[in-house]
Every structure is written in structure tokens, then in C-alpha cells.
Amino acid sequence: MDGVVHLSFEHTVKDALQKEYHKQSGSTALCDTHMGNELSESEEGFCSLLKSLATPPSFTVLRVNTQLEHRDVIQHQVQEIIKKQYEGRKRPVPGVECHPLLPDVLVIPNSGPHVDLEKLKLEVIVDVTCGMAVMRGADVFAQGIMGAPVGMHVGDKVSVYADVDGTCRRGLVKQFQERKLFVGNGVAQITREALYCTEEKASGVGINMTEALYSAPSLSNILPNLVFAQNLPSVVCGCVLNPQPGDTVLDMCAAPGGKTTHLATLMNDQGILVALDKARQKIDKILTNTARWKLHCVHSYAFDSTKACELKSTTVPPDPPPYPPESFNRVLLDAPCSALGQRPSVRNKMSLKELKSYPAYQRTLFAQAVKLLKPEGILVYSTCTFTLDENEGLMEWALTEFPFLQLVRQDPHLGGVGSRGTSLTAEQLQLLQRFDPGSPLSGTDKTPDNDTIGFFIAKFVKNTTR
């Protein structure tokens, strides 16, 4: 696959997303990227969105642990690490800058696509998840290698391709002929025999990427107690909730803990922050991250948040859930979603049934959040997707179902506003925050605020008058 790449879906899903996108723009026409016809503004927008989703953001964003160190000190440390990383690369060392509005954020510009890279004779095939990670700066770990040439030795220079459709069988010997995406060149750190011909499972870095299609710093184990790689809208989300020291806060769907650690640092590690997630192994990740950041106000539990509120409960946070109504000053519901805003992504195998299943689950979680919120408390709802049903449509339902909720202004508001297509008023749409990766941008117009993942944020206050 060379040239322009678009995110691809199952046909029924793509058709549904097209229709919804055109509904947002007030158009009923459909986009056909394979026809030579002139496209409407709406059609161009949808095609631009699919193209942008198949490429990584132009910036790497790091949130820093201001509880342990000043941002400028961490900035210097990260810059020195990146200088050493780029000694083996054929690209200029990027500068590490402070975000002008977010006091705990560092920004590193990425570069690419570097379409002039030579494609080498030796080809390594990796799974699509690994390939997408490479496009954001990662090296290739051994677990992600699906096929490698016979006789590959440590030190061999190889070209790396992502298996777009997931058709490559592990241990492939012949050259892979199915759809593959070139993601760069690197140096083998492992032999083919060590990958596939021993009983011991291979681990660690398998290919050290020296010439990536998109050049970005590798963040593996960089100052894990001081920095957390996070998409910028996720950082904005915590700032919008704005928890204060001494608050009692609930993070309903907390894994892997990025937003949890952010909320705790915003609270100066003072107060009570309850972090819930259904899966025990995900809670372990939260515990690891909070321990690294030396945060003590976080109390994590493996618990289903759809059952977090129990009318007869007498439990008081930070004890384990369920909790009685009106137990928390602030609630963050970063809801499980279709995650269509994540970048880069070149293939999505989600079915239409799965896509349509999310809003019902989100409504269940939202109702629990409202019950658990104290009067005059703040609720922030967010997703990393762009569908109306999971975003503006869900807000439309919420304001009808809970008339005592009020949409309020967000600070900071670095993204765009809400999309049309529901009964929400123009004034209400102005209060919503959308990050749209499909906006056509030239290189000079790209900033960390507008070239990021797709994301949605809404902020509510629970009024006392019902």
C-alpha cells in the first residue's frame, strides 16, 4: 500500500458513518472515494476524516508529574533522552516544548510521512497493532512480529510492513502478498530462529526502528515516574473537571489510569479519588501507575460501574463500592465507546451491531453518574469517538432524562464545538467540545490542539432544583 491511505471499515459500518457525517453537515449525499466525480464539501470532509485517522498526530504529548518535579526540569531531562535516541536515526532531533496553556504538558513535534525511504529486500511483517504503534514512535517488539525472512540475523537491516487485514500467519517464510503497509526500516535485534524455533517465548525489542515512515520519539520506559504519554484531549478532559484538593471524586471507567493520575495531581494528592474498572488486570495497571507517581489519594477497585450506586448502601468513600446516592463532588465518566477517533488506524473490523451497542451502555453508566453526584456537583462525560449517537445524541437524551442537569462552559476549550444533527440548540453546541482530526490542515496550521485524536467532552452541573 503506497500513496494516500484511508481508514477502512466493513461496508455497513462505513455506510452508517457516512450518512451520520452528512447529517452533521446538513447533506444527504454520500461520498464515493473510488469515483471521479467532484465531491461536495461534506463528502470531502468525510474523506479527509478517514485519511487523517489513518495517520498519526503531528505531535507527541507528555503530561508531567508536577507533584514530584518542576516541568522545566522534566523538560530538560526528556530533551536529553531524545537526543540520545536520535543518535541512531537519520532525522533532526525534535525540540521539547512547554504547552502554552496547559501547565503540566510537554509537546514534541513529529515528522513525516518520509516517502523517500528505500524499501529493503528483507521484509518483516508485523500485526496491525504493532504497525500503528511504530507510526507513533515505538520500536517493534518481538511479540508483534508475524513473519520474518529465513536467515534473518541480529544486525540485519529490514523493512517493516503492517499486516492491514490480519491475514498473515505467524511464522510466515515467503514474501507476504496480501495488503500490507510500509511503516519504515530498522535493524533486527533478534533472529528468526529465536522468534519461531525455540520453546521460550520471544520478548523485548525485535526491530530497532531507525528510519520510520513517521518519525516520533520512542516513549518506552522514559521517566515512568515523571511523564505519562497521553493524547492532548485526555489531558483537557481532566482540566475541565478541575478537581480541587479535598474533593471526593469518582473516575468511573478509570483504566489504564492516565486520567486518574492526572486528577490526583490536580488535587495535589489531597482528598479522595475512587477509581473503578470492571477488570482486575486493568486495576493492577492503575495501581502500578499511581505507585510510580507516588499518589496516595487514589483508591482503586475492580467493580462494575453500572452498579456503583445502591440506594440502601451506607458505604462512605474511600471504602469499596457500591455507594449511596450523592456521594461525590465530581464525577468523570470517560465512557467505553467505539473509539473511532483513535489514531493511527488503517483497518477497523467492528460490526454495525457492535457500533450500535455503545449508546445503551453509555446511558446506563451516565444514569449511575448522575445518581452518585452531589447537588451542585460537576459531571464530565467524554469519549474518543465521533459518532452523534455516542456524543451529542447522548447529551440530548441526558438533558431530557435529567432536566436538573445543566450544560456549562468548559475551561480550557481548545477544541471545536458540538456537531449538528440533534435537537441541541446552537448555544448548547457551543458548550460542547469536539476535537476533529478530519479538519483539512496545511503543515503550518497544525498545532497540538488541532492535530490530535478524535474526542468529545461535555460538562454538566447538577442543579439543586429538580
Helix and strand arrangement:
Elements: H1 11-24, H2 41-53, E1 59-64, H3 71-85, E2 97-98, E3 105-109, E4 123-127, H4 128-134, E5 140-141, E6 145-147, E7 157-163, E8 180-188, H5 192-196, E9 205-212, E10 227-229, H6 232-241, E11 248-251, H7 258-266, E12 272-277, H8 280-292, E13 298-302, E14 328-334, H9 352-372, E15 373-383, H10 392-401, E16 405-407, H11 426-431, E17 433-435, E18 455-462
Parallel strand pairs: 4-7, 11-12, 11-14, 12-13, 14-15
Antiparallel strand pairs: 1-3, 1-10, 2-3, 4-6, 5-9, 7-8, 8-9, 15-18, 16-18, 17-18
Helix pairs in contact: 6-7
| Helix segment tally | 11
Shape: globular
Helix and strand sequence: HHEHEEEHEEEEHEEHEHEHEEHEHEHEE
Q: What amount of the residues lies in strands?
A: 15-25%
- Helical content stands at 25-40%
What ranges have pLDDT less than 50 throughout 5 or more consecutive residues?
A: 28-36
| Rg, Cα atoms, Å | 23 Å
Number of strands: 18
- Main structural class: alpha/beta
* Biggest β-sheet strands, sense, barrel: 8 strands, mixed
- pLDDT average, as an integer? 93
N-to-C CA distance: 57 Å
What does this molecule look like?
With 466 residues, this protein is α/β, with parallel strands linked by helices. Helices cover 26% and strands 21% of the residues. The chain is built from eleven helices and 18 strands. Helix 9 links the parallel strand 14 and strand 15 (373-383). 47% of the residues are buried. Residues 28-36 have low confidence and may be disordered.
